[in-house]
Design goal:
By secondary structure, the chain is of the alpha/beta class. The protein has helices spanning about 60-75, 85-90, 105-120; strands at about 5-15, 30-40, 75-80, 100, 125-135, 140-145. It is built from three helices and six strands, in the order ββαβαβαββ. Strand 5 and strand 6 (about 140-145) form a beta hairpin. It binds zinc ion (ZN).
Length: about 150
């Protein structure tokens, strides 16, 4: 059967800082991240299915990505656990939405993290094909299933 790729795009605003980085990005700053999630599978051929002709309902893909990534990271701060995080973890109204992660919060590591979140939540008949994360208009990182061996 013919395999088709289906992509859904999302957007969220997140602040981060790169621990020990030798440039401006060591300071807390924000991005409007643009995320594209692409899955691959065969369009449903069951004439009785309400999802006839779809690899996966765009709405169902959104139901996976929005609560687990977009809603979680939007308007939050993403920091490496290597930072001095005590200040942010204290009861502080400005940092209610903070994520202390065990990786350097680059776009590269974020797509790896997002792939790990999405993969187990997909139905069996579709596979995660790629994740693309734009940090700026001109800069993005991509995760491809085919690259992971
Ligand atoms: Zn940045």
């Amino acid at each position: 059967m013919t395999k088709i790729r289906v992509t859904k795009m999302f957007e969220f605003e997140t602040a981060h800082a790169l621990h020990n980085y030798d440039g401006l990005c060591r300071n807390i700053h924000g991005h409007t991240y643009k995320l594209s999630v692409t899955i691959k599978g065969e369009p449903i051929t069951d004439e009785e299915s309400t999802k006839l002709g779809m690899v996966m309902d765009f709405g169902n893909l959104k139901q996976i990505v929005k609560p687990n990534i977009v809603d979680k990271f939007d308007h939050s701060v993403l920091l490496s656990k290597k930072e001095e995080t005590e200040y942010f973890e204290k009861e502080n109204k400005l940092f209610k939405r903070i994520h202390i992660v065990d990786f350097q919060p680059t776009a590269e590591n974020m797509v790896i993290h997002f792939a790990e979140i999405i993969k187990p939540l997909l139905p069996e008949n579709v596979k995660l094909y790629s994740i693309k994360l734009h940090e700026t208009t001109n800069s993005y990182a991509e995760w491809y299933a085919d690259d992971q061996d």
